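Worked example

This section walks through a single chain of length 269. The input is the sequence exactly as stored; nothing has been trimmed or padded.
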Amino acid sequence: MPHYLCATCGVEYGLAESPPARCPICEDTRQYVPPGGQAWTTMEALQADHHNVITELEPGLHQIVTEPAFGIGQRALLVQAPGGNVLWDCVSLIDDATVKAVQVLGGLSAMAASHPHMFGAMVAWSHAFGGAPIHLPAGFERWVGCPDPLIQYWSGDQRELEQGVSLHRCGGHFTDSDVLLWPDGADGRGVLLTSDTLHVTRDRRHISFMYSYPNYIPLPAATVDRIVERVLPLPFDRVYSHFTDLQILADGKDAVRRSAERYKRAIEA
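Given that input, the structure is written out below as tokens.
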């Protein structure tokens, strides 16, 4: 029996003889079911005509991107932290070539994800690397399509990982959306991996905040204020979002502060 993958969001579901009847993640108002209806593929089919490309973004940080693009088209980010490598967010494809390439970089000792749209094939990835624990906020349990004992749910607003990074629950896009702080990144100035909890815009100078990106549903000002209050005390200079080339390489805190004020002016006008 195969693991089925949602062709729209790319999230894996448990072993089954036939595809699931529905993908709750895509049926949610933050995502969508395409006009042609729900579609599915398998890991084996994806391996046949896709591959992953791994690129260094800065010392200790690599992105993993599936080509041709699949699902949402996000990148996973591999952090070479002091206590072991941590994968932030996940892609849907895992194959022998990817495993070998990641092993050259030091393997994988832990995983975490910002929100359900970025789950990808996280359980398959975990098993490919000997059972690396997957750290998720407790509120995400109902969105997991492939339950597994390797998933460790955490509560509260912060989770310190033994690898030397920390997870911070900010809310917004999802109630439990979180970000990852890598304090050793950017030559010790700190890096914040935000996915689209704080979405780096195309000008690479600003951040945006949305309840639904494909359906253009904004967040209220009070929610944006809470997100900013959570991240500004953290030590970071750079911000990496969830799509290729979406990063702010300097003065990230100022960008967050300015962007929040700009966003609130726009929605309150």
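What to look for: The two ends are 54 Å apart (CA to CA).
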